[in-house]
Amino acid sequence: MKKTFIAAGLAVSLLTTACGSSEKTSYTIHGEIAGIPDSSVVLLSSLTHTSPDTIAEAVVTDGKFEITGVAEEPRAVTLYIKDNYGSKVFMLENADISINGVVKSNEVPDGKLRFDFDEVSVSGSPMTDTYNEKMSGRRMLDSMFMAHQAAYRPLIDKYYEARQNGNSSLVDSIDASEEYNRMRMAEKNLFAAADSIFDASVIANKDDFWGPLLMISQTSYLSAGQRDLYESLSDSAKNSYYGRLVYDELYPVGRPGDKMPEFEAVTIDGTKTGLAALCKDKKYVILDFWASWCGPCRREIPNLKKIYSDFADKGFDIISVSIDKEEKPWINAVENEGLKWVNIRDIDHSIADKYKVSAVPTMYIVDSEGRLVAENLRGEELAAKIKELFQN
């Protein structure tokens, strides 16, 4: 996508040069926003699901600031005030961009300020206008959700107050009420509409970077259930900056058959080892990322113990990689649970980072060569998969 964009830009540049003019090769952002305290630092960061990278920053004086630079390709960015909450999203492109308006702010419990950018507008960026048009479905869903929340707010507050007070009889009564059932049905319909609008917006833009960008900008995270939608994108879209971001999120360690990252670690008994050594002479291995404080992780252990008991003598093993920060809770959990397989504590989170683990439990099944076989199966599905593998 980047090469295509540059090539297209070159063609236009040659044409406009012949006509006595030239295309913009850099951007200048002129900001004038009332309500931002003097000496505040505004930051410009890429819009992603991961920790944002800072593209540029500027100090605010009398509500004004200016940022200049070069955009190699169009990029969705967020403008926000350092160490505070709230942001404005727009498309960064080589143009003279003006950001004007007024922000209101209020202090939140942690002492920071939350800024409301609703009355701030962006002009001079045609791609921002296009982005806003493509995001119209998301804005409609936001309005629908707010209306849903407002309509059922008294019931929602009553329900959560009853739960907080431990009033189980009132909770049961609300659960069985017609109003609660109507709320759940309305919520179900709202989520179905959200899925439909989301899928339609991506498919309508599947031939370029807008498709994967919309996958990112309309969600807080992506899951394996959206892989089919990603696969419907064109090669151009997949190879774009946003296509690569979506791929990395949907396939954190690649596709089945891909080699998993090697790592070095020390087991609970002090043995230095790594993935290749642990997979050698084994047919299949479960790589289990967990923590002593993780309830779902602990609840999965009886299932893992049963699988281990059934297949350990057939060339099967488990590698449990804990992300516990403290050693003692980890050791206590291993001993109390009676985990007889390989146990490692990922002290510096380096293994989890290599495997792009964003939450626990996370599980991978790998073969003797350390190649991915399956991922994130749990409970009966995990047991059935291991049984299937050893039957083949």
By DSSP, the count of extended strands is 15
> What is the first-to-last residue Cα distance?
42 Å
Helical stretch tally: 14
Task: Look up the CATH topology of the largest domain.
Answer: Glutaredoxin
Q: Domains counted in the coordinates: how many? A: 3
CATH superfamily of the largest domain: Glutaredoxin
Going by CATH, the architecture of the largest domain would be 3-Layer(aba) Sandwich
Beta-strand content estimate: 15-25%
Largest sheet, spatial ordering of strands: 13-12-11-14-15
Helical fraction equals: 40-55%
Order of helices and strands: HEEEEEEEEHHHHHHHHEEHEHEHEHEEH
- Using only CA atoms, what is the Rg? 26 Å
Low-confidence stretches: 1-21
Give the secondary structure arrangement, pairings included.
Layout: H1 2-18, E1 27-34, E2 41-46, E3 54-59, E4 64-69, E5 75-81, E6 87-92, E7 96-107, E8 113-123, H2 126-134, H3 136-164, H4 168-175, H5 178-203, H6 210-217, H7 227-231, H8 235-238, H9 241-250, E9 264-266, E10 272-274, H10 275-279, E11 284-290, H11 295-311, E12 316-322, H12 327-337, E13 342-345, H13 350-354, E14 362-367, E15 372-375, H14 379-391
Parallel strand pairs: 1-7, 11-12, 12-13
Antiparallel strand pairs: 1-4, 2-3, 2-5, 5-6, 7-8, 9-10, 11-14, 14-15
